[in-house]
Amino acid sequence: xxxxxxxxxxxxxxxxxxxxxxxxxxxxxxLSEIMINSLIEEINLASSDKSVKxxxxxxxxxxxxxxxxLKEITSARVNEDGGEKYFKELFTSCSNLMQLIINTPKPIIxxxxxxxxxxxxxxxxxxxxxxxSDDSKFATPGVNxxxxxxTPMVALSRNVSKKEAMKMLLTGEMIDAVEAKxxxxxxxxxxSEKLQDEVLSIANKISSKPLATLKIGKEAFYKQYEMSLSDxxxxxxxxxxxxxLSDDAKEGIASFLEKREAVWKDD
Length: 267
Description:
This protein is of the alpha/beta class. It has helices at about 35-45, 70-75, 85-105, 120-125, 150-155, 160-170, 175-180, 190-205, 210-225, 230-245, 245-255, and strands at about 1-5, 10, 15-20, 55-60, 65, 110, 115, 130-135, 135-140, 175, 190. Helices cover about 50% and strands about 15% of the residues. The chain is globular.
């Protein structure tokens, strides 16, 4: 187990599961400049690391991620421009992190054991899958502070229905894990003592699949999601054709027909 700047713990298993664990309890695991940069660095490294098959984002403490560091934001207001340059760089950097989560070829699972608010809720919504403990809570409370959660809205509105997303954004109210599952912000919730085992079970199921196929599928999913129905079918038909010609598809189909375990190349 290694530490990145002491606030992000990295733990890679022999099964190809990389756990990135937020460890800034003093600041409630806020998405500070250093936390954002640390996450970007580690996800970029994992993206090109063939030994990593699945990434899990977790956190220590009872707050998964509180969003941006409000003290950092307040401190920037003393600058000559009132903090404009800092705000632009911060929100752009955070947006780059969220897009990296989507664009990296490795599936990313949020393991939420606690509170996820504002950009922390955005972080959960940006991950491919999200499993939470029963006592986890979620909110986009910026409206209560006079700072509407506009960037978190992007990820939230792509997971939750329009009406449910607007309710969260306009009221700033906290929702529990049961409600978060109902509105599709998370996949499931389990008792906290079973959370890590549940996440690892899912991660191990995914890691048993061929890397190249996972990459093809994740990339195609997010691309077709923004297309019209006709364009999406045209695009995915091409993807399926190319995928069908791959060695993994040949091996997978052959092993199924021959009733044996598939042997993936993963190269």
